[in-house]
Amino acid sequence: MRWKWPMKIPSWEIFTTLFLSFMELGRAFIEKTAGFLSIPGDRGGKMGDFEITHTFGWYPLQQYLVPFPGGRLQCLPIAWNVEERKWYHLYPKALMDSNDWLYWTNAGQNWNGMCAECHSTNLKKNYDLKTDTYRTTWSDIDVGCESCHGPGSNHVEWAEMPDMARPRAENFKLTMKTSGISSSKLVELCAPCHSRRAALGDYTHTEPDLLDSLLPSLLTENLYFADGQILEEVYVYGSFTQSKMYHRDVRCNDCHEVHSLKLVKAGNDLCFQCHRAHEYDTKAHHFHKKKGEKGKPIRSSEGKVLFHVGTGAECVQCHMPGRNYMGIDYRPDHSFRIPPSRSQQQDWGARCLHALPHGQNFSMVRQNHHPMVRTGAQAAFRYGDRRRPQKTVRGSEGADPIGRGSPLPCNCQGYSPFTFIRLSRRGH
């Protein structure tokens, strides 16, 4: 993700119509001058014209920033869907007034405090509490080498020396060591951006421990489902540190190429770096057709393809279910769980159909694509009853740690210290 300055907006007329309709404004005014756009907006209940000066983001969506007094840049609630080439509203069902924290002129949509740190290099927010203003600065407007490796001037000076004059130097005079380190240290190298967290200050790459620079959000019911899978936008770290993979020293770059941001292998081959293909890449394991086999895709009532033939044979479909954030940004869960089969009444395939639009007829999918959708009883008949005894987390004297009248299913052994620290107030 990155941002640009100055910006170009595709489809000016469509943008204006959509923005005005969602903001419920009574008048329309648009001025296109030298690549900039002025539109009416509601700031603190007052009307005004706001200039859009920056694009923010690259794929799968682009947002647009408006400068405000006090050095602030605010994100508009209208974004551009890059793949489908159309405008959409980030909160189409939310009727927000100007006092809502998420309203586009308020703190929830403030670029300086909510977005900038992970999308620019060497960012300093420079917030002044007394004047309630920002003087935000950065070295690179996008994510550069120093975002991970730390300040690089000493490294560059050393690297530019003639070969015969260049002395031996620890870690090539780079601030952050990124190779020859433990898996947990490498994961923590990514965590300052890829985690839901409370920052303790500007990230300087000098803190000896992750918890010296941030406090990761805990496994709370407003952020995660009861089994620990992602619910709200939690950015991977909290789910990955729950996984068996993390506790068996799997690290981010085993799957992700850290410079190109691409996966190191495509499809199931990514998983078969470690897992046995002859056992898991079979119909006896996943009960789905593979790509290239004859079949019909699952479509929405409008005819849009939701699942292509072969999708169900992909490991990630069952072991990394995901959710859309910011409307269209699909992000998979990284706790790598085995799909549950605890309830004989549970629809076995319902968890696979999270991508169905709201109101989609589930029975239509069941009738037209029955191999993908089974009840718990049907699954037990074909798979056998593979339910595993599950440990539960309870507070002292049987208290319910998540406040829902039932224990939290989990496997607590080997979890990172912060994962269940919320239970400490109950005596554990």
Tell me which oligomeric state these chains represent. Answer: single chain
Give the CA-based shape: globular
Radius of gyration: 25 Å
Q: What is the number of strand segments?
A: 19
Low-confidence stretches: 1-7, 24-36, 342-348, 354-376, 389-428
How many domains, in number, for the residues? Answer: 4
Q: In terms of structural class, how would the helical and strand content be classed?
A: alpha+beta
Question: How much helix is in the residues?
Answer: 10-25%
Tell me the number of helical segments per DSSP (H or I, 4 or more residues long).
Answer: 12
| Biggest beta-sheet profile | 6 strands, antiparallel
**How far apart lie the N and C ends?**
40 Å
Strand content: 15-25%
Mean pLDDT metric:
76
Question: Quick summary of this structure?
Answer:
The chain is α+β, with helices and mostly antiparallel strands and 428 residues long.
Textual characterization of the structure:
With 428 residues, this protein is α+β, with helices and mostly antiparallel strands. The chain folds into 4 domains: 3-134, no CATH class; 146-176, no CATH class; 278-386, no CATH class; 391-426, no CATH class. 17% of the residues lie in helices and 17% in strands. The chain contains 12 helices and 19 strands. The protein has helices at 12-23, 111-114, 146-149, 153-159, 183-190, 237-240, 244-247, 277-280, 283-286, 315-319, 362-368, 376-383, and strands at 3-4, 31-33, 36-43, 46-52, 54-56, 61-68, 72-75, 78-81, 86-89, 127-128, 133-134, 197-199, 214-216, 298-299, 305-307, 322-325, 329-332, 391-393, 408-410. Strands 1, 5, 6, 7, 8 and 9 form a 6-stranded antiparallel sheet that branches. It has a 3-stranded antiparallel sheet with strand order 2-3-4, with helices on one face. Strands 10-11 form a two-stranded antiparallel ribbon. A hairpin with a 5-residue loop joins strand 14 and strand 15. The radius of gyration is 25 Å and the shape is globular. It starts with a strand and ends in an 18-residue tail after the last strand.
